[in-house]
Amino acid sequence: MVVSSQTTLQNSSHIFKTCNIPVIDMLDPQAKFHITKACQEFGFLKVVNHGIPNETMTNLEGDAAKFFNLPQCEKNKVCPANPFGYGNKRIGSNGDVGWVEYLLFTTNSEIVSEKSVSIPGNSQLFWSSLNEYVTAVRNMACLVLEKIADGLTIEPKNVLSRLLRDQKSDSCFRLNYYPPCTELEALSGGNGNLIGFGEHTDPQVISVIRSNNTTGLQISLRDGTWVSVPPDQYSFFIIVGDSLQVMTNGRFRGVKHRVLANSLKARLSMIYFGGPPLNEKIAPLSSLMEEGEESLYKEFTWHEYKKSAYKTRLSDHRLGLFEKKIEVS
């Protein structure tokens, strides 16, 4: 099943076209094949009938909105994001900026630790909503990865999902808030396109995004065309990460994505980044490789790749340093 995105933005250099985004019903007996195909062709898909209650999503959205609507002086008590905590406009340490505020948390077997970031106000309710949401989304991400393993006919079934369930899993969770930009035309140089979060791929295994009913998310197709993703506050979007691209030896491709600012409405995104343990070796899965197939990538640990990736700008080709140069005879 597919759904067409909307053509919403245009300037002198870009026309944002329509695109058939794969929509996967998690209750469909053929879901494993549809998910696998979507990861191969797009690196991006939407899942419905995912089993996560609307209340779990809206409770966290409401608590997050309360935080981002606090006076700036209150939010500043939670910064700087180093790397966890509150950040405003500055993304990372390499000069990237955007029209965005965010909260970044680490997750582990205890999910999110209250000791990691101090949230003003009724923090007990916030942590309760956050932990309930992250637990549910992590379980769904693991189910998606198990269906991928089934779709690729690789064993064991948990070869991918175990990375997220491991007690030492280096996963994280991010709340991105894009406030309305009343000066959009002026700040964007008159073309109406102001970057909320710059183009990038995600370095982890898999990302799960849910947002409120506001536009802004875009993905880049293989030909470089940017397409807008229609918002859907009741569904989740799955993104293939760099690590999964390596483990499938390039069969799956991480998709570049970005967010554009909105002049009228605030956008709130909740993103779970499923990462492996720091010492996990990232390499093509032996059970997937065909006879005589060469690895396209040098083997590395997640710690090595994470350290390298976070030294780069958002738009850099992070996997480039780890690609093998295949000689053609």
UniProtKB/TrEMBL annotation:
Kinase listed as a keyword: no
Gene3D superfamilies reported in the protein's UniProt record: B-lactam Antibiotic, Isopenicillin N Synthase, Chain (2.60.120.330)
GO MF entry, a single one: gibberellin 2-beta-dioxygenase activity
Residues making up the signal peptide according to the UniProt record: none
Keywords: Dioxygenase, Iron, Metal-binding, Oxidoreductase, Vitamin C
Residues annotated as domain Fe2OG dioxygenase: 168-276
EC numbers, comma separated: 1.14.11.13
Entry keyword Metal-binding: yes
Pathway: Hormone biosynthesis; Plant hormone biosynthesis; gibberellin biosynthesis
GO biological process, one term: coumarin biosynthetic process
Catalysed reaction equations from the record: gibberellin A1 + 2-oxoglutarate + O2 = gibberellin A8 + succinate + CO2
Family membership noted in the UniProt record: Belongs to the iron/ascorbate-dependent oxidoreductase family. GA2OX subfamily.
Function noted in UniProt: Catalyzes the 2-beta-hydroxylation of several biologically active gibberellins, leading to the homeostatic regulation of their endogenous level. Catabolism of gibberellins (GAs) plays a central role in plant development. Converts GA9/GA20 to GA51/GA29 and GA4/GA1 to GA34/GA8.
PANTHER family (UniProt xref): 2-OXOGLUTARATE (2OG) AND FE(II)-DEPENDENT OXYGENASE SUPERFAMILY PROTEIN-RELATED
Protein name: gibberellin 2beta-dioxygenase
Species in which this protein is naturally found: Anisodus acutangulus
Organism placement in taxonomy: Eukaryota, Viridiplantae, Streptophyta, Embryophyta, Tracheophyta
